[in-house]
């Protein structure tokens, strides 16, 4: 008996020692917060102060020293995140995660981003290269200064690979992959759809801006300039004939519509003439897929002239991405413009040559080696004069990809110049020289001016008759260089009653439309909601703009609530009809956590969509063409859907139903069943129960049990996946919210999910997260300093 007790005691002690050892190893990699650290390659000492959220303020003598300090902070707080960004673009994730990442790495190697990054770095101007090199040195010294390698590498049993200058460009390329198509999926999907459908069906399901009517039932666009007037028409071919032709022999059921709502970013502003205090204000919330830690890293620093620059940086790069410098404030949303072309190649029988306007050419071949568990996996990239071969169309023809990300004009660090700009004119000039995924820039200056423009390179290209996938073998559609600054489209708030807005929708629908084009932009309902809110008040302040960022009204669903009430009127079961009406009586159109009616109406729209047009998309999906992606082409589905159920033509009724009435009643029952799926009474099935936030660390998805330590708390959250200003999904939403006027930064507001540090034992791991969830107006500027740190130059060591 004594032996058993001793063995149990020994096991307990060993377990404690094991846990203690793990705890010590993990906590040893916590970032350094206080003290003086010497031996750094600086011209003068750098002071770093942190507030209670871990937001640093850097005081340094020059750009290089500031970049070093920022790199040191990024390396200490976010190195694993930075490592994933560079590996994501370079196609090197398999080195960390093994064969599970091999397919993705092959896709990325097609673009040869590391080779492109190396070439671009070598061509950088000396001033930029000095800053990048200093930042790189800071990153590596920041990691080396930790008491142990970052905890993620301990868990993965991997060593830390040093940072290089080209890795910073790879982080920029990774944002390209996140914000634009890396495989031409938008144009390939539309080309496939156009080839499979009769012309009137294609135009019906995928209406272009010039095809959307000005009737309020269909017209949701809210551009800054221009308008659309042409009506949308129903197709002539019966849906039964269409389905039998697309999927002969298949019994088609309703297609489950994911309705993911990929676009989500918003930005807008008011000129000084429309603000309470007379200063122009910018509101910006960039939406991205959200992981733990968040994409951005908050920071603030002082310039040589005493101005303070504050905002969000991207770990891996030394730039202030969005923010304010007391003279200007700027924010971004993704343009979803046409920044790439898919080229259908004409090849010889052996596919060894392809045809160009100047004759036949040989492919260029590049051998790439992907390391998987220390074993080399060779991968060959074929390239053309237009870009790499990315796959085949549905007929087996090779496709090449012309993408701005492949050019040096598309990737540079000129965005760093924004932090020092003194005026709107200077900032707009920087916009036309910068190489980033093209953005809608909302820009305010200290004189009260507000303007919009495209930030990033705009190609100057020949416009062929629009085909989604183009044949350039006879007429070269290659880009003819890039647009000059004077060609850039711009709109100032004075032209529009003192306010501007963008929300991933088409900004220009006038003669300037071809400058941006269509790269999968969103329907304009969010933009219209923002414009309506801005117009509703004569004067606005920062709190008013935050309230718009948090707005959850879905104006599009309002008509669906009315439609469901009409369906209830024909419901043959009085008790069931009474339950539906009781829920609909609370309808106010807002996607709030406590709303049952929002969940019901949202589910009803979904069910009608799946029952009516769903079989068409199921039939297209059955073609099994890997270039086809429904989620890339469904942004405008509400226009044809509403016309369909408004007109209810017999020849377009899903043949699975005997009548439109039967289809709509089935949809109502399906929606109600979704509410009671988990056994709850329908009147307790709130939107919040179905709409949960679940932000995960990359490692917790792979290792059971880690989520308890690494993930953010799972909780209900307001908003919806599309058509509300507060776009929010399970792991998608506002990666930051910012409201700020240049010169009045103390009144500004900033939200960020998760926290500053990527270390789960850091006090900053979740700092500020709940303010983001609840929408509390947390301050833009760093607050009272609680930690002081000084980096000393080598002479002081």
Automatic annotation (TrEMBL):
Cofactor(s) the protein needs: Ca(2+)
Record-annotated active site: 265 (nucleophile)
Coiled-coil ranges per UniProt: none
UniProt keyword Calcium present: yes
Cofactor binding description: Binds 1 Ca(2+) ion per dimer.
Keyword Calcium part of the UniProt annotation: yes
Residue stretches spanning the membrane: none
A molecular function GO annotation: hydrolase activity, acting on carbon-nitrogen (but not peptide) bonds, in linear amides
Pfam families: Penicil_amidase
Taxonomy, superkingdom: Bacteria
Keywords: Calcium, Hydrolase, Metal-binding, Zymogen
Binding-site residues for Ca(2+), renumbered to this chain: 338
GO BP of this protein: antibiotic biosynthetic process
Subunit structure: Heterodimer of an alpha subunit and a beta subunit processed from the same precursor.
Record-stated family: Belongs to the peptidase S45 family.
Protein name: Penicillin acylase family protein
Species name: Corallincola holothuriorum
